[in-house]
Specification:
307 residues; alpha/beta; Rossmann fold; 7-stranded mixed β-sheet
């Protein structure tokens, strides 16, 4: 429980950090949209695979750390019934998928990433940790630019989610026969977006979220966690790394956006979701060697597809 408490506690109020940042002249470049950077952002939209290079360089597993706290943050992933399906979008090296597979043997996990190298790392990490993972399936997909494959939720299922609630413990099922038969799962019960949306160009975020909405069953949940506004990571970026309002580019070409609650709320409700939970997680860590406080901010959210 200690690990979960660390990630979901309120060590400080976000307004406290906001006041510090907005009154520090050295951080003023983070506060305003800089028009001259608008054109710069376009070149980063042309290369969809900086993450391919990232995972190739970091194949040793140095960046792998299981996010076990997610099972406490999102207990639905543990308590869901048999035959539940989850789509993990942007699985990276498997740091989200692996604790879910450990925590629930009954859930089928579909995991995608825009990087084929990431999928290789995920499979390696799962094979090292779990003897057999027959309930795990991965595929390559950039959800900000293309649709999920038909076997996640085919076109007919996307438009015909007529649910039968009389199935009892076996869960909700589609009450018509799909032409894809056993290749179609009729939509997923959960979608997880864990530190994924922030890596998508801001212009593509609405389309990406609508794609997630399309493959969820009615009543299904999208579970969200990502970088919050004024997180320590944001404040470390130098002015020249700013390519748009609250969007930055790292030296390796990967992008990072930092969300406020209003932005997240609008993105998901505009796509058709109902807000269930939305808040900032504010955690203070101490760098004892430097004697400095480090303020971390993450956005935690749950959004439901209406019936």
């Amino acid at each position: 429980m200690e690990e979960a408490a660390e990630y979901h506690s309120k060590d400080f109020e976000w307004d406290f950090l906001k006041n510090i940042v907005e009154n520090d002249p050295s951080l003023s470049h983070h506060l305003h949209h800089q028009q001259q950077h608008n054109n710069d952002s376009q070149k980063y939209l042309q290369d969809p695979h900086p993450w391919q290079k990232f995972h190739s360089r970091h194949s040793s597993g140095k960046f792998f750390k299981e996010r076990r706290y997610l099972l406490k943050e999102f207990p639905e992933l543990v308590s869901c019934g048999e035959n539940s399906n989850l789509l993990e979008v942007g699985c990276g090296n498997g740091s989200t998928v692996l604790p879910i597979l450990r925590g629930n043997k009954n859930i089928t996990v579909y995991a995608c990433d825009c990087s084929s190298e990431a999928l290789v790392r995920t499979k390696e990490n799962i094979d090292l940790a779990i003897d057999t993972a027959e309930n795990f399936h991965s595929f390559c997909c950039d959800f900000s630019m293309s649709e999920f494959p038909d076997w996640v939720a085919c076109d007919r299922c996307r438009g015909n989610f007529m649910l039968n609630h009389s199935e009892g413990s076996e869960g909700m099922r589609v009450n018509y026969k799909c032409s894809l038969n056993d290749r179609c799962i009729g939509g997923v019960d959960f979608v997880t977006l864990i530190f994924t949306l922030s890596a998508v160009p801001k212009e593509r975020m609405p389309r990406a979220i609508k794609e997630c909405f399309a493959v969820l069953k009615p009543g299904g949940l999208l579970l969200f966690r990502d970088y919050g506004l004024y997180d320590m990571t944001m404040l470390r970026f130098e002015p020249e790394k700013l390519i748009g309002f609250r969007q930055y580019v790292r030296s390796d070409g990967t992008l990072s956006y930092f969300f406020c609650l209003d932005t997240v709320r609008k993105l998901f409700t505009d796509a058709g979701f109902i807000e269930v939970e939305l808040e900032n997680c504010c955690v203070k860590a101490v760098n004892r060697r430097k004697g400095k406080n480090m303020y971390r901010v993450w956005v935690h959210g749950k959004f439901e597809k209406p019936f």
